[in-house]
Design brief:
Radius of gyration: 23 Å
Bound molecules: guanosine-5'-diphosphate, manganese (II) ion
Strand content: 15-25%
Helix content: 10-25%
Shape: globular
Largest sheet: 9 strands, mixed
Number of strands: 25
Distance between the termini: 42 Å
Structural class: alpha+beta
Length: 527
Amino acid sequence: MRDTIPVVKNSITGTLGNWMSPDDLDTELNMRFPGCMKGRTMFVIPFSMGPVGSALSKIGIELTDSAYVAASMRIMTRVGKKVLKTLGNGDFVKCLHSVGAPYPLKEPMVSNWPCNPKETIIAHLPERNEICSYGSGYGGNSLLGKKCFALRLGSILGRREGWLAEHMLILGIENSKGEKKYFAAAFPSACGKTNLAMMKSALPDYKITCVGDDIAWMRFDKDGKLRAINPEAGFFGVAPGTSMKTNPMAMETISRNTIFTNVAETSDGGVFWEGLEGEVSRTTKIKSWLGVEDWHAEQGKPAAHPNSRFCTPAAQCPIMDERWQDPEGVPIEAIIFGGRRPEGVPLVYEAFNWQHGVYIGASMRSEATAAAEHKSKVIMHDPFAMRPFFGYNFGHYLEHWLSFQQKQDLDLPKIYHVNWFRKDKNGRFMWPGFGENSRVLDWIFRRVNGEDCAVQSAIGNLPRKGSLNLEGLQEDVDMDALFSIPKEYWQKEVKDIGKYFDEQVHEDLPPEIMKELRSLEARVNSM
Ligand code: GDP
Ligand code: MN
């Protein structure tokens, strides 16, 4: 058990994963799987996570009774005979999926969507290289290459083999001199990964290219450079909020060969969601995701489900990086953490060093959103944006991250924290975000190049006054407020994080992380 989840303090409920004994799991699976596909078509999907044949890639075979899953897997991963050919006698991950609705149906199907929420179980068996998923047909619960394989099993393999499987986008950034870098960034679900990975830079001096928008597999190469591949071949992105204004690259990508789920439909055969108001003609009629004909915003309900998604081939994205399928991976020079922090957390700050950076990842928090299971707007702990995706004990995960600072000759990336979501007194975002986030990437780019454009603060290095390029910024931004570090807020933050570590990670917390927390506390107290 302790390999899988931290031993929590006293009888507190653990939030860093669930564990079940192998015997109990066998019982649960045997109650569900025999006969579960009756009357349905079973699909066999050999798939490769990562470019077919790359040394960094891994193979899975998914059995599923959902045609929707089969079609989506064909977009999200590389599938088919070519995968079987490279398999040889090699290892693969066994992925078993059923929507859990054999015929004859016990209950009438809702919205033509077979599933079995009461009996849903998603189980990972690392010893058997196996994933079993029953009862759910959506997202990471059913596209088993994604969160189950690439993150949960992947993180276990990563620890065993000395690499990292992370919930991170990968982007390329090139300046007008042709100097190019790659950054990886971890944000919790629905906090802007897809948008950042495909952003259109507001700074004309920079070109952003996309390697991946959700998952990174990263390994230090023999020269000590951290190399990353995107194990996926498609994007499974949040639809609402995506528009020509916020993410034109995504809009172009989804113009064809795309599966939309839980979005609204237009009378001319198109799709609609919140954020596209300006992009449909007024005469177009909209049918909501729940099937309400002639939907209007005044009815008070959203047209599309807040977690409705597009599933679209990465190769269709106009700004895919020329090396996005490079089997060697791309060299990562900065790692960025972030989340939705309506209060107290500045637009960007830099870790003092690797260990402090690992602390920053461990202390990540974010306002709960539609993709998460929590409805109210609370600030949830989501370390490394991996809270739902750790394949093994989070304390051991931290040790794994910390271990790289002991290794000789590694070119450790610099680590940052960003927050696009700070709000003013009136509840409005203080920073325009999206393409304007290129101004933050520019500052990071220059820091990585060793430019002296930072000042120390209690929580990390901040941009020196005037060093964030604001040229051409249309909006009025209160930079002092955006970068303020309220002492009382951070004193409370330190307490909250301390309590979280003590309760949830308890004796599995590496002493280095506690040391970082204590230093932060001392710095904040003497502010
Ligand atoms: P992902 O799930 O992490 O890939 O997140 P997405 O990129 O799909 O974004 C989730 C939501 O956050 C969408 O509604 C976006 O419009 C919104 N979003 C993304 N980037 C920004 C930003 O810089 N500022 C603001 N205010 N919203 C953003
Ligand atoms: Mn995304």
